[in-house]
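Many introductory courses stop at the sequence. We go one step further.
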Amino acid sequence: TQSTWGGAMVVEYSKPKTHRYPNDLWLQLLLSGEESNDPSTVTQRSLALIMEMNATITQLSHRIHLLEASKAPVEAEEGKVVTQSKSPIQLPPEVLPRLAALGNLGLLPTQLEIHNLFKSHNAHLYEVKDMNTHPFLRHLVDIGLLNTGQYTTPVPLNNTRAAKKSRQNLNIPAKATQFAVAYPLGGVGHLDPSHKDNLAATDSAFMFLLYGGILYMDAELEIVAASGFVPGGKEMQFGERRQWDPRFTEKLHKARRFNTITVQYFKSKGAELFAWINPNEVLRHGEEMDDGQYVLTKFNNWPYGAFLYLFHRDAVDTENNIQDCYFALTEDCDFARAVQSPPVDDLF
């Protein structure tokens, strides 16, 4: 059957890029082996670059603190004025949004064997074990795909009785206590379009590889199940388009939160990068005013999580961000009922 995403039929995948984005880890990994045909050399260089990334993230003190389940009030700290975010830029009435709606996403369980490559909050990489054994998956490795991908900081699932039915509908194992959003497999954004027909005709395994999905983990951060994003469906439902506040983009960029768009529909709208924001994750921005007063602004408008889309290749572009937007998950869907919604302290 044919599927739609955001109201348009998904019939193509991204074309290979010649641009070398400094914030694109996966392109760096692919380029790390361009001077050698020896797979072991490529692997060593790739792992070395991964470890360099881990050190950088560690230096950024990317820590997560889980707080009480109720939304924390905004309180002024001594010597500061604290405000809630309102984007300093707005889309003019005469300018139409390039991405007016996100639509809904389905979650299709996959039988891929996926492992957590680094089990810590400082390194978010998963590994697909089937890549070297499955005939077609092995072919994808041969044409440049990595068998690793990035995922977001794990956060708690709802383990209360109220979430039991939704967890069952989503095929979430009882031992799963956390979830993370998995970004598409490394290298997907640079696949040769000649492979699009083969990829489009595949099962849930390839939906996960192409679009990403959800990883479910136990208390030890072992991956116990995974589901791939599929166009349409009703498991994840999103609200209206909201204007993004660009003051918070740089910190997300420094924390390597953005990933290259791999869905042709979004690319046709001009979207270049996307990121998942965790449920009730609190973003902060500090600024000293002309009068010497320090203003701390907090951004927290996604109780169940949100997808953020940037319409420029340079994440910190300050001149072409008028179309940047996000879509928050609504409460009227199984995935929202299956996740907890605690405030998450400033990750940066």
